[in-house]
Design brief:
By secondary structure, the chain is α+β, with helices and mostly antiparallel strands. Helices cover about 30% and strands about 20% of the residues. The protein has 9 helices and 17 strands. The strands form 4 sheets. Strands 4-3-5-6-7-8-9-10 form an 8-stranded mixed beta sheet, sandwiched between helices. Strands 12-11-13-17-15 form a 5-stranded mixed beta sheet, sandwiched between helices. Helix 1 runs antiparallel to helix 2, helix 2 packs antiparallel against helix 3 and helix 5 packs across helix 8. The radius of gyration is 21 Å and the shape is globular. The termini are far apart. The structure holds 1,6-di-O-phosphono-alpha-D-fructofuranose. The site of 1,6-di-O-phosphono-alpha-D-fructofuranose (AFP) has 13 residues, from strand 5. The site of 1,6-di-O-phosphono-alpha-D-fructofuranose has 13 residues, from strand 5.
């Protein structure tokens, strides 16, 4: 039964009708969706596509590039550069912004993306995704790097695709967060999850606990309390998940609540967090807030950060509002110096959590 289904194109026409540049924004998002379908097809082939594994190259972050990172990057650039809709693009895989070739008209938008988030998961057949953010660009001139450095609150659209058992596109144009499922036979994204809503409270957290000794005390306190469950401060048991693919964690949170944390740590003092502000944290923060959740660094709203560099990293804590608010409170108490050492009944005297443990050498 095809009739009565809302396709992505129909949804965009209805959502953007009457909005300045609405038709152009809709057309750009349709181009992004077409690129996403190409990436979905590549990832779905797995080992049969001959595209798994690493390249003998590193990206600007010094991370080993996977073949699929580069192919996904090319799919988005080639899918979006020709339509006269974007003035420039920036990607996790490119050191500097990509300038639109002279043969194509320049448009009013900037497209910023992580072509394949969690790409280390492709070799083990676990969900990966594409994250993107659309910003406005007023001048006629080719955009400089500084033009991309806009706070997340200025995004006109944001979304991600998740390549899992089903391929989904989750999107906001500033009026709620909505999920579309790819009908592979027909090739259309169909609205299947309108108006997603994240519960305010949750008992599920996601964090890479192998970094525990490098975290700041407020994060140690929060996680320690979650692990203590009903015998501790929180008075109820928590569940933990870690997929190592932010898109998949965020997707779970949009479906059933929870919190995802990639906090600042002392593992690599040169990196104030793992995730990149412009093409990971900002788009995901907008999606989460449009679904009623909250996204913070622990010390303030992610969407209000003034970016200082294209590949800037930030601490990320997002999901169910009351949990993220609690994390902000713990950071504030710690910064004021009035947080109490947390004593979990699960820990004996020797492994007692004390704030100064996190401030030590990190060994
Ligand atoms: P990539 O963007 O390099 O694929 O990294 C994925 C990611 O940034 C994010 O999706 C995960 O939450 C995180 O890395 C996983 O990191 P670790 O499990 O290695 O801590």
């Amino acid at each position: 039964m095809q009739s009565g289904r809302t396709t992505l194109s129909k949804f965009l026409i209805e959502q953007l009708r009457g909005r300045d540049d609405g038709a152009d924004l809709g057309a750009l998002l349709v181009d992004v969706a077409a690129a996403v379908k190409a990436i979905a097809a590549m990832t779905a082939k797995g080992a049969l596509g001959g595209v798994l594994g690493a390249l003998d190259a590193r990206n600007v972050q010094g991370e080993t590039q996977k073949k699929l990172d580069v192919l996904a990057n090319d799919a988005i650039i080639q899918g979006c550069e020709w339509g006269g809709l974007v003035a420039g693009m920036a990607s996790e895989e490119l050191e500097a912004p990509y300038a639109i070739p002279a043969e194509f008209k320049r448009g009013k938008f900037l497209l910023v993306f992580d072509p394949l988030d969690g790409s280390s998961n492709t070799d083990v057949n676990v969900s990966v995704g594409t994250i993107f953010s659309v910003l406005r660009h007023e001048p006629e001139a080719a955009p400089a790097e500084a033009d991309f450095l806009q706070p997340g609150s200025r995004q006109v659209a944001a979304g991600y695709a998740i390549y899992g058992p089903a391929t989904m596109l989750v999107l906001t144009v500033g009026a709620g967060t909505h999920g579309f499922t790819l009908d592979r036979e027909v090739g259309n994204f169909i609205l299947t999850h309108p108006q997603l809503a994240i519960p305010e409270d949750s008992s599920e957290f996601a964090i890479n606990t192998s970094n525990e000794r490098f975290w700041e005390p407020p994060v140690q306190r929060y996680v320690c309390e979650c692990k203590a469950g009903r015998s501790g401060e929180r008075g109820r048991d928590f569940n933990m998940r870690w997929i190592a693919s932010m898109v998949a964690e965020v997707h779970r949170i949009l479906m059933r609540g929870g919190v995802f944390l990639y906090p600042k740590d002392t593992k690599d003092p040169g990196k104030p967090g793992r995730l990149r502000l412009l093409y990971e944290a900002n788009p995901v923060a907008l999606l989460i807030e449009q679904a009623g959740g909250y996204a913070s660094t622990g010390r303030g709203r992610i969407l209000e950060l003034e970016p200082g560099a294209l590949h800037q990293r930030v601490p990320v804590m997002l999901g169910s509002r009351n949990e993220v608010a609690r994390l902000e409170r713990y950071h504030a108490e710690h910064d004021r110096g009035d947080d109490q050492p947390f004593v979990s009944p699960l820990f004996n005297e020797r492994s007692l959590y004390r704030p100064e443990m996190a401030l030590g050498s990190g060994k």
